[in-house]
Specification:
CATH topology of the largest domain: Yope Regulator, Chain: A
Strand order of the largest sheet: 1-2-5-6-9-7
CATH architecture of the largest domain: 2-Layer Sandwich
Order of helices and strands: HHEEEEEEHEEEHHEEEEEEHEEEH
Number of helices: 7
Radius of gyration: 27 Å
Shape: globular
Length: 307
């Protein structure tokens, strides 16, 4: 009898121990080892980008860099800036499943921004931000962030084209002599091109196109600054346009490409809010040309975004 009771007790203890054990992970959910850069052809990346790189095997990242030693940048007139102080362009490559991704930051003078941006976009890269990192710098330096996903050779080739463009002179600033007080614009014609009704006041024609997002449960829109706008001054044959596009993240690249195709310059890409849903990105632009052609360029970009 004692033997039977002891066996029953041991069986109960065994069942309890099994119940206390965590369940086995489902099939295919085993923790994956961190990516390794060994899968990247680092020599090929260096060859295609024309830049030397550094391997972080633990992170699985290979990063190539181009110090802008060619730039003589000073801040506030007397502070000499060198590449280690933030004047180094770079691109980092990492495996992503069965393909690769790249992220980078490109150091540019103002006159290089738009030609380099066009090269990046035309080569299949995404441009995700454009801003300054300093005040009082001379010459003015801008920073353009890039990204992309695809095969290693295509990505490295695209980055190589961007790096090569850094050695070329930038575009001269567009020339125009315009005083809004002397503007002579055909507001009705601009209304037709933009398919909207703009305000023409103090020599400036301005059209605004609102959209909405949410902050928490509250909808915010046009009057709170969630809008695209375009402002024109000058004459039919010599005008400027400047403005701001409010776009979804998924719309950003197409709008950039469309504005650049119209020879309109991009001057900033950033966000104005945090925690909004859906997320809204803002890109600022500026162009010189015939008023109607500039309006057509803006309208073409407007036509690519959700209404």
């Amino acid at each position: 009898m004692r033997i039977i009771l002891l066996a029953a007790l041991l069986a109960a203890c065994t069942k309890k121990e099994q119940a206390d054990q965590p369940p086995p992970p489902p099939a295919g959910s085993a923790k994956q080892p961190p990516p390794t850069a060994a899968a990247l052809d680092t020599a090929n990346i260096e060859k295609l980008t024309g830049a030397k790189g550094k391997l972080d095997d633990k992170a699985g990242v290979f990063k190539v860099s181009v110090p802008r030693k060619d730039l003589a940048v000073t801040i506030a007139g007397s502070v000499k800036m060198t590449p280690p102080l933030g004047l180094t362009a770079w691109a980092a490559f990492q495996k992503m499943g069965d393909h690769e991704m790249v992220m980078g930051d490109i150091v540019l003078t103002e006159d290089q921004v738009n030609p380099v941006m066009s090269i990046a976009l035309d080569s299949g890269l995404e441009v995700t931000a454009l801003h300054n990192h300093f005040f009082w710098d001379s010459p003015k330096v801008m920073f353009m962030h890039i990204g992309g996903m695809g095969d290693e050779t295509t990505l490295a080739t695209a980055v190589g084209k961007v790096f090569a463009k850094l050695q070329a002179p930038g575009d001269p600033p567009p020339k125009a002599t315009i005083d809004p007080a002397k503007s002579k614009l055909d507001a009705a014609k601009l209304d037709v091109v933009l398919a909207g009704k703009g305000d023409y006041k103090d020599g400036v024609y301005k059209a605004t196109f609102g959209r909405t997002t949410k902050m928490g449960e509250t909808e915010v829109g046009n009057t709170m600054g969630v809008n695209t706008w375009a402002a024109f001054a000058g004459t039919a044959d010599s005008a400027i346009v400047d403005g701001d596009f409010a776009v979804l993240e998924s719309e950003l690249q197409t709008v950039l490409k469309t504005l650049r195709k119209a020879n309109i310059n991009i001057v900033a890409i950033h966000q104005h809010m945090t925690n909004e849903q859906p997320r809204i990105m803002f890109l600022h632009y500026w162009g010189v040309g015939k008023a109607e052609e500039l309006a057509k360029g803006v309208k073409a970009a407007l036509d690519t975004v959700a209404k």
